[in-house]
Amino acid sequence: EFLKHIERTKTLLLMIDAANYREMRYQYETLLVELQRYSETLATRKHAIAITKIDSLSQDEVNVLTKTFLDDIGLEANDTLSKYKADMSYMSYGFQTDFGVDLPQEKPLFVLPISSVAHLNTEALRYAIGDFVKNVEAEQEA
Fold first, then answer.
1. Is 16's pLDDT higher than 60?
2. How high is the pLDDT of residue 8?
3. Which of helix, strand or coil describes residue 14?
4. What CATH number has the domain bearing residue 42?
5. What is the mean pLDDT of the chain?
6. Per-residue pLDDT band at 118 (split at 50, 70, 90)
7. How many domains does the chain have?
8. Which domain holds residue 75?
């Protein structure tokens, strides 16, 4: 029922729980498989990732988990999300958009650790999502 609701969206924000006993890569791959099973169209939507509940762990633990996850999915941490005032003491990844470069299809546009409870990186997430949606809309119009 929930997946039916999100079918009309152009972009997806996948939430991965840093405090979960399952590895982040497993959670991510499970979400992708569930999307694929439900709808081929939904599975091809561009996506980003928020790593949630980081307030449950130390900053060092979050960074180790984030680095492992980024390595697992073939990405490297960078400071791209600093333009949204993300807390750069936490590792993150942002696709570096450039004129004429298509947004990634298979990889997330960004990976950002957040805490709703501590309001950590929630504003950065809001701005990153805003740009993400604008970039996808511009790409679809081109």
1. yes
2. 78
3. strand
4. 3.40.50.300
5. 91
6. very high
7. 1
8. 2-137
Cα distances (Å, whole numbers) of residue 31 to 12, 48, 65? 11, 12, 18
With beta carbons less than 8 A apart as the criterion, state whether 95 and 103 touch: yes
> Mean of the pLDDT values across residues 14-35?
96
pLDDT of residue 56: 97
- Does 142 map to a domain? no
Contact 110, 77 (CB under 8 A): no
Judge contact between 56 and 23, C-beta under 8 A.
Answer: no
CA neighbor of 17 nearest in space, from 43, 40, 51: 51
Question: Which residues does 73 contact at the CB level (< 8 Å), separation at least 6?
Answer: 25, 28, 107, 108
Amino acid at 101: V
In a domain, 89, yes or no: yes
Q: What is the pLDDT of residue 31?
A: 95
CA distances from 25 to 13, 64, 65, 73, 100 (A): 15, 13, 10, 7, 30
Structural domain contains residue 121 = yes
Q: Give the contacts of 48 (CB within 8 A, at least 6 positions apart).
A: 11, 12, 13, 14, 108, 109, 110, 111, 112, 128, 129, 132
In this prediction, residues 107-133 reach a mean pLDDT of 96
